[in-house]
Backbone:
């Protein structure tokens, strides 16, 4: 099953309410994925301050901020905050530099998000409990997404949680399963791409990240994904300025989009959208099979 | 049930309606009451997209859902008349046997799937696979339907007042499809057919039952070319 929610705020007046809106939406998809939940939020200055980068880490040792600071001479301000299984490090360097320092300082740790704007949280447990752990209701920002997981193909643990965030400020969440991911994984590995897990969704995320790195825009990257991947999927993909939804050509996996002058929202089920402000005036539709829907900030 | 209270009549039914507020009780309690009804008319408040509202009702009662319903609303309906003042999720009126279900808003996928009887009216649009494997029910959609409508439909009538998406009537048996707007690609073995007087007559009845005033002459009819009914023996690997 699995549940997806995403919210892209067009009206800056709503930015302080992002976390509260996401938390209400999350309630509507909790039953679809009671195993674990991952969340990504964009534009929360308290969690990813301007001029800095944030890196989200699983299995982080307690002194990670100090050991990372030791690897970044001239960077005095490495801060760490823990929310359940996820540790978020921030520092005034690029996301890639900070992620590389984390991996060098703690090879046993796993980087699950990096960027100048995004912060990613992952954990196993009930979505509502984890939303409290992440402090979701207090989040502000301009965009966010979450994935509730009902595991079918790999263990229930924070590592198996979506979103997969493998490029700067990029996140991908998936409801469904890819069937030819092993072939595509081998092709990407030949091109030098490395993987963190055996998960099929990670292959999709790495593929999209490689397309974006090649210069594709979000729409083209997802059209290429549709030409390359076989299987069932509804995907929500977010970047530093974009929000995109695509379903496979059979479109068995549910998706509802609501578009309002103040926001764009996507969810697996309507009930996750029911409490959004102005939902009565929103244009509500189900995305067509194989069609890429994108919104830019 | 503490949350049940007598309320004023709904606009459709002059009998006093029992009100059930889903902010106060769960869907299980609602459906338990509807399965052994102590009243003839019910009003459901704050559905908020909950699943399985009024599923499995088998008595001639009226149920009015004041808002948006989730999956399987009014599934397996027999004899009841259910009206949803909002949209519905997947599988509304799935496997309906008789009675009627009216959706004032839009319907998600597989609306009216496998229905054997009764009338489903969707005043808005229906998503993909509307009427999949319908087996004798009638479905009238006020707006468009998505791709793969009436997939493997076996019997019954599907009326689409807007456009129909790609793959209409794929592998269809004997259901009759009427479309007022454009159709995308037709599914395997689905073809346009002549509109004869008996078709215009049954379409007029269906439109009247749905409360729509389109003229039957505005519609085209689609159905099975019946080329998939039998193995033809000319498939090389079997010959």
Residues:
């Amino acid at each position: 099953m699995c549940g997806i929610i995403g919210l892209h705020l067009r009206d800056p007046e709503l930015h302080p309410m992002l976390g509260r809106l996401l938390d209400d939406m999350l309630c509507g998809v909790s039953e679809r994925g009671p195993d674990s939940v991952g969340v990504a939020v964009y534009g929360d200055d308290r969690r990813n301050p301007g001029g800095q980068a944030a890196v989200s880490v699983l299995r982080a040792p307690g002194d990670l901020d100090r050991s990372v600071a030791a690897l970044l001479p001239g960077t005095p301000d490495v801060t760490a905050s823990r929310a359940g299984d996820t540790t978020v490090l921030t520092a005034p360097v690029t996301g890639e530099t900070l992620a590389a320092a984390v991996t060098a300082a703690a090879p046993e740790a796993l980087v699950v998000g990096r960027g100048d704007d995004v912060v990613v949280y992952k954990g196993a447990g009930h979505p509502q409990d984890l939303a409290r752990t992440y402090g979701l209701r207090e989040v502000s920002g301009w965009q966010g997404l979450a994935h509730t997981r009902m595991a079918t193909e790999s263990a229930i643990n924070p590592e198996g949680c979506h979103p997969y965030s493998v490029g700067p400020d990029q996140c991908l969440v998936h409801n469904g399963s890819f069937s030819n991911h092993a072939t595509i994984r081998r092709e990407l590995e030949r091109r030098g791409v490395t993987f963190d897990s055996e998960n099929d969704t990670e292959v999709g995320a790495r593929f999209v990240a490689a397309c974006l790195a090649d210069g594709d825009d979000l729409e083209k990257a997802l059209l290429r994904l549709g030409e390359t991947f076989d299987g069932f999927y509804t995907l929500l993909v977010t970047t530093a300025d974009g929000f995109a939804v695509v379903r496979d050509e059979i479109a068995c996996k549910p998706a509802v989009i609501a578009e309002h002058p103040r926001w764009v929202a996507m969810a697996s089920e309507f009930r996750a959208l029911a409490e959004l402000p102005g939902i009565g005036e929103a244009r509500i539709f189900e995305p067509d099979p194989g069609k890429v829907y994108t919104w830019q900030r | 049930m503490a949350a049940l209270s007598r309320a004023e009549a709904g606009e459709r039914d002059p009998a006093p309606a029992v009100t059930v507020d889903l902010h106060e009780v769960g869907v299980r309690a609602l459906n338990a009451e509807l399965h052994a009804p102590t009243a003839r008319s019910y009003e459901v408040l704050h559905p908020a997209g909950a699943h399985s509202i009024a599923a499995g009702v088998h008595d001639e009662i009226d149920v009015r859902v004041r808002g948006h319903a989730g999956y399987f609303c009014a599934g397996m309906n027999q004899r009841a008349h259910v009206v949803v003042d909002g949209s519905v999720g997947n599988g509304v009126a799935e496997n309906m046997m008789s009675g009627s279900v009216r959706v004032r808003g839009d319907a998600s996928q597989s609306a009216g799937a496998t229905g054997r009887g009764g009338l489903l009216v969707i005043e808005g649009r229906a998503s993909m696979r509307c009427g999949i494997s319908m087996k004798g029910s009638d479905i009238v959609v006020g707006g468009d339907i998505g791709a793969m409508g009436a997939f493997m439909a076996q019997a019954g009538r599907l009326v689409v007042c807007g456009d129909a998406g790609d793959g209409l009537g794929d592998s269809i048996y004997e259901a009759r499809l009427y479309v007022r707007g454009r159709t995308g690609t037709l599914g395997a073995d689905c073809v346009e057919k002549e509109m004869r007087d008996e078709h215009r007559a049954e379409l007029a009845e269906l439109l009247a039952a749905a409360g729509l005033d389109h003229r039957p002459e505005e519609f085209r009819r689609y159905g099975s070319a019946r080329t998939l009914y039998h193995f033809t023996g000319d498939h090389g690997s079997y010959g």
Q: What stands out?
A: Residues 16 and 214 of chain B are 34 Å apart (CA to CA). The first helix of chain B runs from residue 27 to 35. The interface with chain A takes residues 48-50, 68, 70-71, 87, 89-90, 106, 108-109, 125, 127-128, 146-147, 165 of chain B (CB under 8 Å). Chain B has one domain: 5-211+218-224.
